[in-house]
């Protein structure tokens, strides 16, 4: 609510995670002085976490980019004017395009930026440059969820809303740690569990929510498929199938029944380590619920068979009829503030907005008519394919907008090699990052607290973003920068403001047909939004959005992960997140959150610590087949013996030196969650080991 103690007040949407909390910002003298929760925010109901409420000091940090930078003859980045930067970009991209063709250029769109920014980025890459080489961070995150849900049900999004948690009598959370990654949703789940919702958590680590649940299963990393097939086995065996739903609404169930015969609780215990009795109890809790939710995260997707496990989760919901009703939702916890939206907008190599294939003629023609240029019908490159092509010499230039692959993508050595191989790299960010080290031009952008637009949260809710303060120095909004770059390349876009962009998105995107800023108002709308403005908190009440209107079961067997413990690498490293820091950490490391958590640490079970002669706080070396890092150990019982855990928020640690190129079979989402490693105290590392450090 407006507060006259401040010079300006704006209601906006948090730019950190996919919960999409609505925030009241209060500014004075051009700086944010405080942020409070918006009481009517539908996803946050008057709450925020410590990031949304307090982690805003980065906006006026001295290291913010305030002018464009151009790399000089001396190899250093130097301040430059906007005209110089735009001219350099236009000259270099035009040269590459003329010499090698448009497919020698690729772009990454930012899932931290707005829908409008991502749509304009898609137009820049597709229309101004002429290629479909465009991808976004969803590739390394929930692309398996998107793939699987489109296959099973039709649409790429949660089937319900966070509010369904309030109406569920049971929920399974698998491979997600919401009290760290989606804290406001995590708190809502806690409240529901306290009120009596029966919560089952499935995670190799004893996550905080396990203490609020009735049952915690701790599978070996990479064995989710066996666990989920086992749950289906028990549901079928114990007569908990909703046969009416299966008969009326789905196809493919018989093939699943044949497959799950082989996944008895005893078989599953052998594969996953989950006690047979616990698996049976979990199956009954979900199978007997009147309304049950399935909630998942990266512990499902960032695996070799991540997209298959999401399909197996869709099976569970269909066989029990737990879909399309209040309290019966599938809620993938989409990660970044706008990773749902960047993909919805078509910042992907194979789809325009609404996930319509680039070779779908009517769609391609509609975009051609709107943009006035011919568009390619050929699929573009995914992020890992871009890096391979850069090393192979086919890709010569990249435009990286709000993404830090040199820190966050897997196999850092390979990524750095790819970035170094490019003739020309543009980065558009709010800070210098590990990736800008390889850029030829760096463009200073506005942060989410300094711009207008919309973000789409993990429940498909499109919400307004409003500026609380001005961008620092000469930094410009992403919308303004991308429009200027496109114009410099000779493709003038006609939009005067992000609102104009939304008008075009609505005109070209059936699921956004009725979206206007006015209708979004304070509470947003959940897509699909009909032309007269009716939105959809719950999908699939009567029919699925597949070609035949039926939900599709998938009979997919368990297959082992890409990395397994060996004599040389006896421990399994799992990576994930910390409450206090956010992904590349560019923002949260420049706030007081750094005092709460000053570094990444390696979680290690006391039994392993004793065997390795490591005590709490010791510096340890972690080595995989791909690289080696050093960090301090935290000895804790939160983790099972044989496993170790760390995050990836600190460039000085560079966790992703350890991760290889193994990835989801359908979407190339990296297998960040399972890597065989060797851990030892640093003093014990023999002199010859540094030879194995990545890059040698
Ligand atoms: N504080 C904070 N919040 C964030 C982020 C952040 O960096 N910091 N990042 C945002 C982003 S981009 C995303 S995508 C989300 C991610 O949010 P989550 O999906 O919750 O992400 P993670 O913590 O990476 O992984 C979740 C859990 O998966 C478990 N896991 C690993 N392997 C397996 C397995 O084989 N089986 C099972 N069942 N579990 C497994 C891990 O132990 C971990 O507890 O968070 C978003 N929110
Ligand atoms: N080991 C390991 N690695 C992982 C993961 C894991 O679980 N384990 N998770 C993966 C996942 S799920 C994800 S999503 C990725 C995230 O990886 P990234 O997308 O690389 O990380 P972010 O920190 O979200 O943001 C990227 C960049 O956007 C910039 N930025 C923020 N806001 C804006 C803006 O408004 N405009 C512009 N132009 N720039 C902005 C930030 O400064 C930052 O440099 O990391 C992946 N990496
Ligand atoms: S829960 Fe997510 S959206 Fe809400 S304040 Fe925290 S980081 Fe922001
Ligand atoms: Mo993510």
Can you give a write-up of this model?
The protein is of the alpha/beta class and 696 residues long. It folds into three domains: 69-141 and 337-526, 3-Layer(aba) Sandwich (Rossmann fold), CATH 3.40.50; 143-332, Dimethylsulfoxide Reductase, domain 2 (3-Layer(aba) Sandwich); 571-684, Barwin-like endoglucanases (Beta Barrel), CATH 2.40.40. It contains 24 helices and 28 strands. The strands form seven sheets. It has a seven-stranded mixed β-sheet with strand order 5-4-18-17-16-6-7, with helices on both faces. Strands 23-27-24-26-25-28 form a six-stranded mixed beta barrel. Strands 10-9-8-12-13 form a five-stranded parallel β-sheet. Helix 8 (224-237) crosses helix 12. The longest helix is centred in the N-terminal third of the chain and has 19 residues, at 82-100. The termini are far apart. The model is unreliable at 687-696 (pLDDT under 50). The site of molybdenum atom has 4 residues, from loops.
């Amino acid at each position: 609510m407006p507060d006259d103690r401040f010079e300006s007040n704006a209601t906006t949407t948090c730019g950190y995670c996919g919960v999409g909390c609505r925030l009241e910002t209060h500014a004075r003298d051009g700086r944010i002085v405080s942020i409070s929760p918006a009481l009517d925010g539908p996803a946050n109901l008057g709450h925020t976490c410590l990031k949304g409420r307090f982690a805003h000091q980065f906006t006026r940090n001295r290291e913010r980019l305030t002018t464009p930078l151009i790399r000089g003859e001396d190899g250093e980045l130097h301040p430059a004017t906007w005209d110089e930067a735009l001219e350099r970009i236009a000259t270099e991209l035009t040269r590459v395009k003329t010499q090698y063709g448009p497919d020698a250029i690729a772009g990454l769109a930012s899932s931290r930026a707005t829908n409008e920014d991502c749509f304009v980025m898609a137009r820049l890459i597709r229309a101004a440059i002429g290629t479909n080489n465009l991808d976004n961070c969803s590739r390394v995150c929930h692309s398996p969820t998107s793939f699987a849900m489109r296959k099973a049900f039709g649409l790429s999004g949660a089937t319900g809303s966070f509010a369904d948690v309030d109406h569920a009598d049971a929920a399974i959370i698998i491979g997600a740690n919401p009290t760290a990654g989606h804290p406001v949703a995590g708190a809502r789940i806690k409240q529901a569990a306290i009120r009596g919702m029966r919560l089952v958590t499935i995670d190799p680590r004893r996550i905080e929510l396990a203490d609020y649940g009735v049952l915690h299963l701790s599978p070996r990393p990479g064995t989710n498929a066996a666990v989920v097939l086992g749950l289906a086995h028990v549901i079928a065996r114990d007569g908990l199938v909703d046969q009416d739903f299966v008969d009326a609404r789905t196809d493919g169930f018989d093939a699943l029944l044949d497959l799950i015969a082989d996944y008895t609780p005893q078989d599953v215990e052998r594969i996953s380590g989950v006690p047979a009795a616990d698996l049976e109890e979990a199956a009954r809790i979900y199978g007997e619920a009147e309304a049950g939710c399935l909630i998942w995260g990266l512990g499902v997707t960032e695996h070799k068979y991540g997209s298959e496990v999401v399909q197996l989760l869709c099976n569970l919901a269909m066989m029990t009829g737990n879909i399309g009703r209040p309290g019966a939702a599938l809620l993938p916890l989409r990660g970044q503030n706008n990773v749902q939206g960047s993909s919805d907008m078509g910042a992907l190599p194979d789809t325009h907005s609404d996930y319509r294939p680039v070779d779908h003629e009517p769609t391609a023609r509609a975009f051609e008519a709107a943009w006035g240029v011919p568009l390619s019908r050929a699929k573009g490159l995914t992020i890992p394919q871009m890096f391979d092509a850069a090393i192979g010499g086919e890709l010569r230039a990249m435009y990286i907008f709000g993404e830090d692959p040199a820190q966050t993508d897997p196999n850092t050595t390979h990524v750095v090699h790819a970035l170094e191989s490019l003739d020309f790299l543009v980065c558009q960010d709010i800070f210098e990052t590990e990736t800008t080290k390889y850029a030829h031009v760096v463009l200073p952008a506005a942060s989410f607290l300094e711009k207008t637009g919309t973000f789409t949260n993990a429940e498909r809710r499109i919400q307004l973003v409003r500026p609380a303060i001005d961008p620092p120095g000469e930094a410009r909004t992403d919308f303004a920068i991308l429009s200027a770059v496109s114009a410099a390349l000779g493709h003038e876009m006609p939009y005067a403001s992000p609102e104009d962009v939304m008008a075009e998105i609505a005109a070209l995107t059936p699921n956004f047909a009725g979206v206007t800023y006015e209708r979004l108002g304070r509470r947003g709308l959940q897509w699909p939004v009909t032309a007269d403005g009716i939105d959809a908190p719950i999908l699939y009440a009567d029919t699925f959005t597949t070609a035949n209107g039926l939900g599709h079961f998938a009979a997919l067997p368990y297959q082992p992960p890409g990395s397994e413990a060996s004599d040389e690498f006896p421990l399994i490293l799992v990576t994930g997140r910390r409450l206090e820091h956010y992904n590349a950490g560019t923002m949260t490391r420049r706030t007081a959150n750094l005092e709460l958590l000053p570094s990444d640490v390696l979680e290690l079970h006391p039994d392993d610590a004793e065997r390795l002669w490591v005590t709490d706080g010791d510096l340890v070396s972690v080595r995989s087949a791909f690289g080696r890092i050093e960090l301090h150990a935290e000895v804790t019982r939160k983790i099972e013996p044989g496993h170790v855990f760390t995050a990836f928020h600190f460039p000085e640690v560079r966790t992703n030196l350890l991760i290889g190129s193994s990835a989801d079979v359908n979407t190339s989402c990296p297998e960040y969650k399972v890597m065989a490693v060797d851990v030892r105290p640093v003093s014990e590392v023999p002199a010859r080991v540094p030879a194995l450090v990545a890059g040698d």
